[in-house]
Design goal:
The protein is built from four helices and 27 strands. Strands 1-5-4-3-2 form a five-stranded antiparallel sheet, with no helix packed on it. A four-stranded antiparallel sheet has the order 7-8-10-11, with no helix packed on it. A four-stranded antiparallel sheet has the order 12-13-14-15, with no helix packed on it. The chain starts with 6 loop residues before the first helix and ends with a helix. The protein is mainly beta.
């Protein structure tokens, strides 16, 4: 409480009047302070109540046509790609925009990526009556060792509300005519852009990012969730029971964070190697105790501010997909290239140019049982909106060319046909999908 004691205000008045005025002013200021505090609490309470809508499990829409057909879409941003045990490939991408209009879409291929279906699944939690937009923008697809297809995705009020929420849904029959999906389960806050890895002892490890406060753009949420500030970093979660439960065990705060987008590789000496996107290239950190503590972050490699992809291959080599030469920071998101390391990331060899054009970004991938590497990425999200795929081998990487018979680049996974024709489908059918 603030009390005014400015003698100039009450100079020249009798002493008893001074005391009375002081009391009146004090009461007035106290009431203003109480009213202001109550208004702030009410506003925060309203934000919390509205933001709790982000805790509601979204619906998995398995009949997305015709509302999410390509002629009604005008944006695409790559998220991920995975292959089932029987060979079907599932792709995941964002529609709506890289903003609070975002939602997730999925399609599939039964001929190793040569042709692709129309959208088969949509996860869209918008609802027109909401005070804030509720969007789904970050996610990935992953097939576990038992053949189940997992989708990890986030849910937010506004573009980022300061908390977000990481969810998963599981499909136990991803090769069937009518795949069925489990009810989504919320793991924690934040989001997961990249796939889990399975450690040598069978532990599942999932990279989870809780973004820093600079990513909160909506004024109403600028001060929301201060209790989470100590967890705003590249977090690490583990599961010891095949994904039934997840536990946070550690994390790393990198300088100049850019959404983290971190990967984890288990090295042969037992250490864990984390690589992360920052505003100053790719940085790294090492854990010697299975992810509970991590070394001081160090710069690892030059790179433009964009996602990279890294994974262990069947041969034991490590695959890296980045923009440009191995030591280059490109001016644009261009020259998407693949490299191999045979010494646990100390040096890189090869250099297969996957796509040389500008506007290429966000690679994700997997390696099939026959050794073929599949990488998906997007191109010119707002103008062309293409999700593309390349398939190649380690031999292609070493030869720096697509020399293997089945290798191919620039395969179209999907392309929106509603560019500059229709508004995002969400504005037309969100209410229908959520009734």
């Amino acid at each position: 409480m603030i009390l005014f004691r400015n003698k100039k205000i009450i100079r020249g008045r009798p002493k008893e009047n001074n005391t009375m005025i002081y009391r009146i002013i004090s009461i007035f200021v106290f009431k203003c302070w109480i009213t202001s505090s109550m208004m702030l609490q009410a506003q925060q309470g309203e934000i919390n109540a509205l933001d709790d809508l982000a805790l509601e499990a979204p619906t998995i829409n398995i009949t997305p046509l015709p509302y999410y057909d390509y002629d009604r879409l005008d944006y695409s941003m790559n998220r991920g790609i995975a292959q089932t045990i029987k060979g079907r490939i599932w792709a995941c991408w964002v529609g709506g925009g890289d903003n609070d209009d975002a939602f997730l879409l999925f399609n599939s291929s039964d001929d190793y990526g040569l042709t692709w279906s129309k959208p088969r699944v949509a996860i869209d939690s918008h609802y027109p009556e909401m005070h804030y937009k509720r969007r789904i923008r970050v996610g990935n697809v992953w097939v576990d060792p038992y053949g189940k297809l997992w989708v990890f995705f986030d849910q937010n009020m506004t573009t980022f509300d300061g908390r977000a929420g990481l969810w998963y849904t599981v499909c136990e029959n991803p090769d069937s005519e009518n795949p069925q999906w489990s009810k989504p389960v919320r793991i924690w806050h934040g989001c997961a852009l990249n796939k889990p890895v399975i450690l040598s002892d069978g532990t599942w490890m999932l990279p989870v990012s809780l973004w820093d406060r600079q990513k909160i753009k909506h004024e109403d949420f600028k001060e929301a969730f201060p209790n989470l500030d100590t967890f705003r970093m590249a977090n690490v979660f583990i599961s010891k029971d095949k994904g039934k439960s997840w536990e946070r065990i550690g994390g790393v705060q990198f300088p100049k964070p850019q959404f983290d987008e971190h990967h984890i590789i288990e090295r042969y000496d037992g250490s864990l190697w984390m690589t992360t996107r920052t505003g100053d290239g790719i940085w790294e950190s090492i854990s010697l105790d299975q992810g509970q503590s991590w070394s001081e972050p160090q710069k690892y490699m030059e790179h433009i501010g964009s996602r990279h992809h890294i994974q262990r291959l069947i041969s034991g080599s490590i695959l890296l997909v980045k923009h440009g030469d191995i030591d280059e920071r490109t001016t644009f998101r261009s020259k998407l290239s693949a490299y191999l390391s045979e010494d646990e990331g100390k040096t890189w060899i090869g250099g297969l140019m996957i796509d040389e054009r500008r506007g290429i970004s966000y690679p994700d991938g997997f390696q099939a049982s026959d050794g073929t590497i599949y990488i998906s990425y997007d191109r010119n999200r707002d103008w062309d909106g293409e999700i593309l795929m390349a398939k190649f081998t380690e031999n292609d990487i070493l030869h720096r060319d697509f020399v293997s018979p089945q290798s191919q680049s620039k395969i179209t996974i999907c392309k929106p046909e509603g560019l500059d024709k229709l508004p995002p489908p969400s504005d037309m059918i969100f209410k229908k999908n959520n009734e």
